[in-house]
Amino acid sequence: MTLVHRRLSFFVPAAVLLTGVLAWGLAGMPSFGLPHSDYARYITAHAAGQRHVSNIVSSVVFDYRGWDTAGEELMMFAAVMGTALLLRDDRDDRDEERRRPTDATTSDAVRTVRAGAVALTLLVGLWTVAFGYLTPGGGFQGGVVAASAALLTWVGGSYRRLRAVTPTTMVDATEGLAAVGFLAVGLLGLVAAGSYLQNVLPLGTPGTLTSTGTIAVLNAATGLEIAAAFVLIFREFLEEHVETLPAREEP
Amino acid sequence: MQDVLLVVAFTVVVVLGVCVVLTRDPLRQTLVVGFFGLALVLLLAVLQAPDVAISEVVVSTVAFPVVLLTTIRRVASVRRSKEEES
Fold this sequence. Notes:
The structure holds two protein chains of two kinds.
Chain A: H1 3-27, H2 38-51, H3 56-64, H4 66-89, H5 93-99, H6 108-130, H7 139-155, H8 159-165, H9 168-193, H10 214-243
Helix pairs in contact in A: 2-3, 3-4, 3-10, 4-9, 4-10, 6-7, 7-8, 7-10, 9-10
Chain B: H1 2-22, H2 26-46, H3 50-85
Helix pairs in contact in B: 1-2, 2-3
């Protein structure tokens, strides 16, 4: 039996099986653009009344299916910690210091554009987080946008500035504490109202930033956690990039 | 109108998805996968899922390419130093 034969003998049954399962799954799916399911109808009818949200999606993410989001939060945390543990392990910080670009940006044009771009991106990120439960957006979306503002600092020419505005201790602590904060709000519901992630805060006037009770807090915690997580990933991967640069001579 | 937009968005996603698979050089693939991500953003926007579209636009055009580019660069440098040793 040659290699090609062995590969084929695996590929053909696997392909047939996959096609069968896919066709079976597709046949059972509701048709495209079908009117809402019972679950969707229930949520759209009751979310605004029960949770005082105007972005219904956020009530699903942080309340009706808040448990799923808690899982995702932990998954993100574990993935980022894994990345940090793996990449930081075999790096020598003194050696790194000699490789990091000295990059003082001398061009005024680059500096100005960078300042504008970073400020604008950060603002859009914070706005997307803050109004997450009122308009489209939310903790995850805003957090990623805010984190890319940090990345723009590097794109705009200064690696050292990026490291200066995002100290490792701060990023690590934010990442961990925000994840713990999310879980703690859930425990608060368990203790005060009898079930995990149950709302225990006043609901407020619909359409204002102080409305929606726990959704607002969970949204903010997710924003922090995700922003820190992505900044950490960017930093670790850029540090790997720095490892490929030639080391300067010791002065 | 909605139907036309949907057909266009789905077609672009399919075409660019195939392009990503057919591109063999990882460096070029990074660029193509960015465009593929933008096509997904278009599709999600047409399907009226702005929440997901916002995440996708940053993840596919900023976060993912950065991680890919730094990894490609790093792997290439490891490979180079191994060749020098041998």
